[in-house]
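for the writeup, i need someone to sanity check this before i put it in the appendix. the sequnce is what the collaborator sent (i think, or maybe the updated version? ugh). structure was predicted straight from it, no edits. if anything looks off just tell me and ill rerun, i have time this weekend
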Amino acid sequence: MSLELLQQRIRRCKTPLALGLSPDSLPEQLLRRFEQLYGPGPMAQAEALRYQGTRLLEAAEGLPAVFLRLESYLPYGPAGLEVLANLVSAAAAAEQYVIVDCCTPTPRLWLEALPGARAVTVNPYVGSDCCNVGEDQAVFALIRSANPSAGQVQNLMARDRYLHQAVAEQMSRQGAGLLVETGFSLDIREIRRQAEKAMLLLTHCDGEAAAWGVDQYGHGALVVDETIQHAADPKAAAAAAVGALKQWITVV
């Protein structure tokens, strides 16, 4: 298992910014356009979803990676999973590093089902089994989640530290990347301290907080931006997001 390919693409693109795709709804105007072609129903929804995702990938072609949330495609049923697979393949064809957020205990199943995906997110509480992937694949263990009740479990004490900090160290030893969803600089600093060499995957995170996750060369973290997908001009939004992140992180 290796995350070196991701770091190579970050260096090539000179930014650690990734496009986040988590469609929670379809624009009414876009959906109506496809309903005129296919009639109301799952087919129109799936084709609108596919069109929207494809346009966003084109707008973010200069970014090193794409992060797709499985849960956003499941409501569309089998057609939604087909769209997800299509978008994964399209991003991979554009030489972007593709991460699928599915928080699975069995990563090989999803990596086989989604050719082109390089990594998936995993549930670390099943132990080192969740790191069982091929040499050219990788996993990101969910260390800190953003749901309000997360602290009930993740902030339990494991001897002299929080449970999530102990899990971060264990998963890092297995070669896993670490997913941090809170966006809090304190969480990022502490997890970096527990796992000095791990690749961090940061969501809901601004540049100031993300800067705690990288070294002096801007290496060691990928920052997911899920606001680009909602912009009226995604290409301009992607360029602006890259510029804003450069104020805090310079990749060399």
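The radius of gyration is 18 Å. Residues 110 and 120 are 8 Å apart (CA to CA).
thx in advance!!
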